[in-house]
Amino acid sequence: MKRHIAYRRGSHTLATFRRDESGATLVEFALVLALFLLIYFGTIDFGRLAFHYVTAEKAMHSAARLAAVRPPACDGVPEFHQSDPLNTGTGATDYGTRCNAGANICLAVGTVSCSGNLNNPTVAEIWPMVRGTLPNTAGPEDLRFSYTYDSNLGFLGGPYVPVVTVELQNITFQFVSPLGALARLAGATNTGNLGADIAFPAMSVSMPGEDLAHGA
């Protein structure tokens, strides 16, 4: 008799346990919490990325404007428009002739490029202006300066006036939140590289130089 009563009590307890749904709310809360944290931290991190991109883009315009009126950030950029060796001897072009007045008037030096180096005064002036807009992984060497000859700018014997380009490249953006782990916790089965470091978008700004601080 006692054994039968104990069996009935055990069956009743098991049935009650099966019908008990008091813990379901906790499970649902855990799933919703993981999804909420994923959205919350994702908004923060992608907001950081958008902030750096927008502010860096504006800073690059200021950097190019400054580079266009300062001495070159690279070695090998001429100070003045020189005559082309092919245009010498009888009938040589007079100083003051525009470079685009004909072929072989000014010496075409092509493009001179270099990475940013704080030992250069122009780079040392530009870098503090853009540093605060970039991810923490950025350095002055991630700025690239280019000076490209353009026959439509300048005249023979006058200040060398190239097209000045400031480019931002090779920067990595680091997420601070474990987005991949949060996505898996929320139920995702394939998170790929979510939350891994990504390449920060490259950008460049070009404008004509303004005598590169050599003219009066």
UniProtKB/TrEMBL annotation:
Q: Transmembrane as a keyword?
A: yes
Membrane-spanning intervals of the chain: 21-41
Tell me where in this chain the TadE-like domain is found.
23-65
> Which keywords label this protein?
Membrane, Transmembrane, Transmembrane helix
Kindly give the InterPro entries that the UniProt entry links to this protein: TadE-like_dom
Q: Native species of this protein?
A: Aliiruegeria lutimaris
Name this protein carries in UniProt: Flp pilus assembly protein TadG
Give the superkingdom in one word.
Bacteria
Pfam families registered for this protein in UniProt: TadE
